Structure formats: structure tokens, C-alpha cells
Structures
1.
Amino acid sequence: MNASQVLFLVFAALTLGSALMVVTTKKMIHAAFWLIATLFGVAALYALLNAGFIAMVQLVVYVGAIAILFIFAVMLTRKDLRDSAKSLNANWGWAALFSALMFGGFAILLRQWDGFGMKEAGALPATDMITKLGTALVTPTQYLLPFEVASVLLLAALIGAVYVAATNK
Amino acid sequence: MIPISWYLIVAAALFSIGLFGVLARKNAVAILLGIELMLNAVNINLVTFWRYNAPATVTGQVFAIIVFAVAAAEVAVGLALVISIYRNRKTVIADDLDMMKW
């Protein structure tokens, strides 16, 4: 077992452990903080996959924006988050069973796939990935259209969120 | 090097944990947290397949970035809905939000 495998196991354990805390902890504000730990773990996994740009975007967008939004939402809806209230609904046993079965199904499906035994990643190209990515996003023959659609989607979400949440009437 | 199976199993486990959160939590904000976990699991898979199968192309990373944008849009609208519901009904417990049921 070499160093990168040890690092992987450490960050995978951090990710999955804090993800379990996100879905089980009672206080909502703690769940939001555990989500930040999960997102850091996922960013570390991206870094291990040599996707440095994606790891940085993960930190900026998820930890910097989405997690903060969650913390604001938790604080704005605080009345029902008393610690005495039960955090799981009556059917949580069925939910746990279904999730475990889902995981088992994924494992069986993945084992049947031919590439599952792949041990080594291919060599990275010598060219700079970020330059390639930036060029691809603004080249009409590549990913210009998805890029623009994403920006329209974000604008629509922005206007929709302001309209829905605005103090009203 | 790390075998591809490790990443895929971690992503599958993260997705299942998020699914459990969506199905089992009472609080609407906690359900959105579960959805975020599931989106992250999908993104781990996308970046893994990019790294192991097509590191010379940018397709996998572009997919991951589009998922980021969709996740940001989803969480903004979702939390706006939760806050709006909280203003009108004074609750964010999913079981109590039954005004569309009759």
C-alpha cells in the first residue's frame, strides 16, 4: 500500500463518516457543519484524481456558497429545530433498508462491469488542463452551448429564488 | 495508484447515505442536504471516469462543472422555497407540509 492509497483511505473515511453524521445528527446546524467536512473530503478526492481545478471549484462553490446558504437557511428556520424533536421520521428503518439494498445493487452492477478491475489511471496529457477546459467552454464546436445554458439556468434560479423568498404582498 | 473500484465504491456509498437522508429526515433543509450528498457522489463518478478512461479530453470535467451549476441553482431555489414555506406555515417539517394533498 503506497502513500496515495493511504491518503485516499483517510479522505474516503472522512467523507463517508461526516456524510453519515450529516444524515443522523440531531441539531441541524451541526448537520450543516458536517456537510462542510464532507465537501472538503470530496475536494481532496478530486485532488487525488489530478483534477485540481475541480477541487478548487468544489471549495469555492460548495464550501464557500452552498454550505453558507444552508447555514443561513438553518438559522432562518430555527423554531422547529429544537434538540428534543426527533430528526428521523417513522419510516427510517425502511429508508435504511432501501439505501443498503441500493448500495448492494450498485456494488453488484459495478462488479459486472469489465473496467471495474482497472488498477492504473492513464497518463495525463502534457498540455495544461485548465487552458484546455477554458478553451472548450467558449468554443462553439465544443461546449459553448451547455455553458450558456448553464448561465441562463443560474439567472433563472436567481430571479426565481428572489421572487419565491421575497417578503410579500 | 488507486484502483478505480475504490472511487466507485466510495461514490456509491455516498449516494446511498444521501438517499437515506432524503428518505428518512423530517426537516426539509436536511432533505436538501441529502440531495447535495447525492450530487457530490455523482460528481466523484464523473471525475473518476474522466481520469481513468479519457484523461486527454475535457468532457468529464465539463460535465462536472455543469453539475456544479445545476447544484447551485437547485439549492438556491430549494432553500428559497423552504424559507417561503416557513414564513407562511411556521414549520419546515416535511410531514406537516400537506397543503397539496386532499
2.
Amino acid sequence: MPTRTIKVDYLARVEGEGALSLRIRDGVVTDAKLKIFEPPRFFESLLRGRAFTEAPDVTARICGICPVAYQMSAVHAMENAAGICVTGPLRDLRRLLYCGEWIESHALHVFLLHAPDFLGFDDAVAMARDHGDIVKTGLAIKKAGNAIVSLIGGREIHPINIRVGGFYRTPSKNELKALARTLEPVLDDVVKALHWAQTLPFPDYEAPYDFVSLFHGEEYPFNEGRIVSTSGLDISADAYENHFIEYQEPHSTALHSLIKGHGAYLVGPMARFHFNRALLTPMATMAAKEADLAGGCVNPFKSILIRLIEILFALEEALRLIDNYVEPESPAIAVEPKVSIGHSATEAPRGLLYHRYCLDAVGDILEAKIVPPTSQNQKTIENDLKDVAQQYVALPDEELQWRCEQTIRNYDPCISCSAHFLKLNVERQRSAEAPHGN
Amino acid sequence: MVIKIIAIGNIYRRDDGAAILAARGLTKHHLAGVEILEALADPSALFAAWEGASAVIVIDASAPAGKPGQISRIVACENTLHVERPSASTHALGLAKTVELADALGQLPSRLIIYAIEGENFDYGEGLSAPVFKALNQLIDRVRTEALAIAEEEYSHA
């Protein structure tokens, strides 16, 4: 039997360019690699010599779908360096802004990128012909998130209203009340979408993940909290580099990450949900129970449900924040730089996003370090690929390829953030054949 | 009856900004009954932009194909937009996929006309290439003429 090779020019519905190769010998998956070959983007170097005030606008350009996450990690790290803490309405507005980003990012992934996998469609356009109502619902939900980001951030993509110490402009109570009126009807849309999503065919696959996320204790985390892991880690952001190591693999331009002494780990909605589900808002808590996820979830294919639960949470949280909003006296507090190092970890839609900056006396950046969620998840994605491919190895190549692509999309990977194109190469061999290819 | 002109592009990527510059040029003509907008080539942004419009003209820059500055007029409901290679980005689906999605969802405006100006240079930075710059006034003139004709037609039927 000759070697069987499947090639896909690129995997659609992920952000960025990468490739996957699977090696199967005598029915055993011996290797699975997520190859990321998008060129390095040098953002950490670009930041050197820049003023500390420029970091939120420069880092926002790392990603078009989660710029808020980069801005939030940047401003919190700078404020950490300056020894200040933003509280009150400005803190609440930052949570509100993050709600908007989670809603738009999760809605894009759930309805336009991930749902077609479960229903056997090549893309959302094909899905829309048979499931128009659910795609319309998804777009309406995404629009709600866009509205939040647009109002608080100044525009939908790459917001321009975020600064170290707060904002350039804060909204009036009336502006937020008008926003709330557009958000309220969307709650029902999300509940209906959750009921629909529960009917999707979920592959029977579970894995013993080492989850890593922020844990605040009093609120579902966005910008604050300790970094905790299933394997027992409980640290502040400034200790991140003592416990997490980045290393290079030849097949990836994005650095891989491990927890020292433990190994691969998982960040993102499943990890957040694992540690923080008791802090969800009422409707989101009820939705988790109805989805039979109140006890947690270790099936990555069900991450689509958790993203929907987080959308529901973010909407409820946004409405609560708007209801309690009191216009601040000033849009920002003063931040005086000093020779210092600042750290921050916040929860991007795809998971923990770590920033560290070394500043000089006038606040110029001497060194920057940014660890995005997708690069942290790379090793776990490869582990999942190997296990899922093994579980479904008897499938014909085309079906196996589909399941592997779906496995990658469980993570909503943003390859552009981590370092575009995903080529899939499945190589099947018998022991008498010499390995070749990738 | 609302007639909208929607421009798509990025003025910081050379010829990709041609539609935006055309829209800003059109604004100076104060076209009665015509709303001029800038939008992202993304479903939620474009659907929101053309919501409530009876007729929409979208202006965008098209990929180089050997005739920089050439202006094409496409009636969206009569033609399929060709995508040479799907975008590797999920951040914005692009105009062709957005129109296809709108068609599948029954959300296409009753009249959607696309003006595409072929670009030459999509590098970083401001400023159009010479052939696109030369064609810009012609683009403005053609879109203005068509918008006014649609407006006259629609208001005469009102």
C-alpha cells in the first residue's frame, strides 16, 4: 500500500497562516505538528524606544479582532510599572469595553467560523443558505459587541480612545443608556442560539487539560486576578516568567510555552470557565446548567457552548456596568513614569495575554515582552490533534482531515497574533516504507 | 427611499484608499438624497451600512490585473464577484464574500452597484499610484452621475 498524502492549500476559518502535518504509521499517529510559518512581526522590538504612552496604540495593531486585549494588557502593565491602580468608573468602563470585544470575537468564531464544522458546511456562506436564521442571529450578536467597542473605544477596529490611566473621552450616562437599549434584545438571541448549539453533534473526546486562567474571586475575570492552573499554580502576573517558559520549535515562528515542571497547558474560554464559572451572571449560570456544563467541561468541541455562555455573561455584565455607571470626574488619572518594570495579564477572548515592559526614568520602553494566547496553546493543540487523529484514524482521509481542522478551530487560533495559511498534510505509512515529506 | 454610497478601503495602503478618497471627493458635491459612508468590508459593518437603503453604490479598489486605474461597474445581483484566493484573515470576509452572504440571507439591497477601481500599489503609506490618481476624478464623476440618476428615478416614483 503506497503512502497516502492529503494536502490542503490552506485551512479556512482560522486567522493567519500555518500548516498541519500528521504522520500515521501502521494505523498509529506518530507525530502531529501545527506549523506556524507566518513571519515574525517584531512588535516587541518595535516598542523599544517608544514612550510608555504609545504601547496601547502600537500593540492594538497586533490583532484586528482582539485589539482591546492588547490595549488592556498594555495599559495595566504600564500602570503597574508606575505603581498606580485605575478604579471606579474608569475600571468599570474597561470591563465594559472588554465585554464588547468578547461578544464580537466569540460571535464571529461561533457563528461564522466554528458552527459550519458541526453541520458539514465549507463556510458560513454555505451554511447561511440552509441556516439563515442562525447566521443572522450571530451577526446581530456580533453587532452588539461592535456597538460597545465603537462607543467606548472610539471605533470598532483598533480602538483609539484607550490611554494609560484611563481614556481620552468617557461616555455620558445617556450614551450608555442608548447602548443598553440595543443590547437588551440580544440576550434572548443568545439564549436561543445556546439552545440551538446544544443540538450540534459533538465528537466524544475529552482530555486532561492543565487549565490556566486569571482568577479574581469576586468577578469573572477580564483585567485583574491571580494566574491559576489546574496543576496548582497560584501566582501574580509579575511571577509569570518564573513559572512559564517559552521555547522555539523549528516548525513554528511562534514560540511555544510550557509550565515549568508540568508541560503543555490550555488558556481560553474553557480554562476561564473551569475556574470562574461560579462567578457567572444569573442567565449565564442558568445556561451552563441547561447545557449540562455546570460541573465543568473537558471536551474541547464543546468550547462553542462555553463561548456562547461567555457571550451571555458579557451582555449581562455590560448591562450591569451601564446601569451602575456614574460619569467620572476626569477621563483619566495622571501617570508619572519611573525606572521600573510593569507586568500584566488580562483575559483576551482566546485566553491569557501577558505583557511586561521595562521603562526608563522618562517612561521610554527599554524592553517589551508579549505572550499571546494562541502561542501558549500551540502544544496543547498539537496534543489534541494527535489524540483526536488517533481516535478517528480509521476514517477515510477526507473525513479525518475535516475532524482535524475542526480540532484546530476549537481553539479559535489567531496565528497572526502568535506569529496565516494552514496547510494540512496527512502522511500514512506502513512500517516497510521510509518516511518522507514534512 | 435612501440612496447610499459606501466606500471601502484603507488610505494608509496606497491605492487601497482610492474609494475612500473618491467618497470624500463626492461629499464635496453635496448630492441631494444621497448618503455617503465609509465602512469595513465585513458583513456586520456592511449590512449595517446599507440597512434601510433602497439603492447602494459600493466603491472599492480591486486587485492588480494589468490595467491600473481601470474602472469596472458591477451590478451585484446580476453577477458573481470573483475571488482569486480566499482571504487568510477571518477579521474581515471581504466584499465578495459579504455580498454572497447577504444574498444567501436575503439581505442584499434591492439595487447594489459596485464600482471597482483597479489598483497598482498596495504598499504601506499614503498617496495613490499615478494611474489610479489620474482615474480618480473619472471615478467620482461616474459614481456621482449614477447616484443622481438613481435619486431622480427613485424620487420621481415616490
